[in-house]
Amino acid sequence: MTDTSKVSFSAAIPRLINLINENAQSRSVDVALIRDLAGRITIAVNTENAGCYAELSETATRLLGRYLSPSPLKSLADLIDADSIFNSKESIILQETPVRVKLVDRLIIGQDWLRDPIVINPSPPRATLYSVKGGVGRSTALAVWARYLSSKGHRVFISDLDLEAPGVGSMLLPKEMTPRFGIIDWLVESGLGTASESIIEEMYARSPLSEDSEIFVLPAGGRDIEDYMPKLSRAYLEILDPKGELLGFADRLNEILNAISDIVRPDIILIDSRAGLHDIGASAVSRLGASVFCFALNTPQNWSGYEILFDYIRNNRAVEFGKFDGLRSNIKMVSAQTLPTERDFQSFLQFSYELWTKTLYDDESSVYQDDFPGEVFNFSRNATDAPHFPLRTYWDENLQRYNPVGTEDKVLWDRIYSSFKDFCEGATDICLNTHDNDEAADET
Q: Whole-angstrom Cα distance, residue 357 to residue 188?
């Protein structure tokens, strides 16, 4: 018997693809590899008769062992809904030739990283502040940016999507001003079919941080914190709408953002996402049509985290190599807590450029191929409009004592703002000025 002890989760599919390519019978039909929650793989072939693939199945079972399901080969006749397999919007194309092979991965979390955006170029524009690691000053940057926008006359709506470590709500709303409900309540009540306009009206509040224009805050949770944990455990469930269609986590977030936006009429929506690779990040980054600001410290932990993420979202169906698609071009890196030296900035820039070149930029050599679909999505290292070229926030020891709604000291605020000035101005230009130009172009 063949020793399968050296096979690993990551090696199983590449080995299986090699077997498929070697099997002459499989070259005339598409093949879908269905990987279940445990990691076991089923081979689905787009034909009514799978008998000619018996040898492939036997060889794969011998070589891969428990990485294959107990009944590893399925034909069209064996599948209840073949269309959901071979035309799945959440599948990943592993190769086109000599055999078209796609992966249908059954995941508990992470599926939203691969799903199509719910909305493209929403109005008002949205901005997501995201990071793969915590401790980068993301929420503080959001608070400072909101105050900056307000001082410029922009009406701001903020949503705290860091459900498992809420913070923006308490940063921007004193306890006595916290609304009765938060976004966690909406997710639970909508799941029960009991969400109503009266709940929505008690989900947001005006922040005292407001200056020339108003800042409205939708906190993660409301005043009642007693049942927060039981609510959290139910927040991510998919539900059926009145028409019987499945609504995922991102769909429900989009629904409540639209509902409150229709009431407060903001010029921009700011979203504080949870750090890490969780589905909250997936929804906020890839599905809500937002400009995405990816905060990072110049550390190995941050770069390795972003490499894992960017390598995976290469498979998102919104990423169209050879085009300026609406996912990659919406991302902008942010060098967080930067030291005020050119050397520190250049180091971050180099790591960022290498990351994007390795993961999300098109290979420049592809543009010379006859079958290349369009314009190469790539930038030079020093192109300031490139996704990899970072906006900056600077380290300041005063950040440790900064209380957005309690800071009356103008000198302290001026120092805090100076640390975020590059980010505030750059992010505003991306989200509002670019958005205005796009709308003007649409009108003409």
A: 41
375 or 273, which is more confident? Answer: 273
| Spans of all domains in the chain | 9-106, 113-174+267-443
Q: What is the pLDDT of residues 203-221, one digit of tens each?
A: 999 999 888 899 999 999 9
Helices (DSSP H) in 1-53: which residue ranges? 9-22
Question: What secondary structure letter does DSSP report for 283?
Answer: I
Rounded (5°) CA angle 179-182-183: 155
CA dihedral 344, 345, 348, 349 (to 10 degrees): -150
Q: Taking the domain 113-174+267-443, which CATH number applies?
A: 3.40.50.300
Condensed to tens digits (0 to 9), the pLDDT of residues 81-133 reads 888 888 887 788 888 888 889 998 877 665 677 777 888 899 999 999 999 99
State residue 198's pLDDT score.
Answer: 84
Name the E strands within 26-161. Answer: 31-35, 41-45, 68-74, 92-95, 101-105, 126-131, 156-160
Are 215 and 154 a contacting pair, CB within 8 Å? no
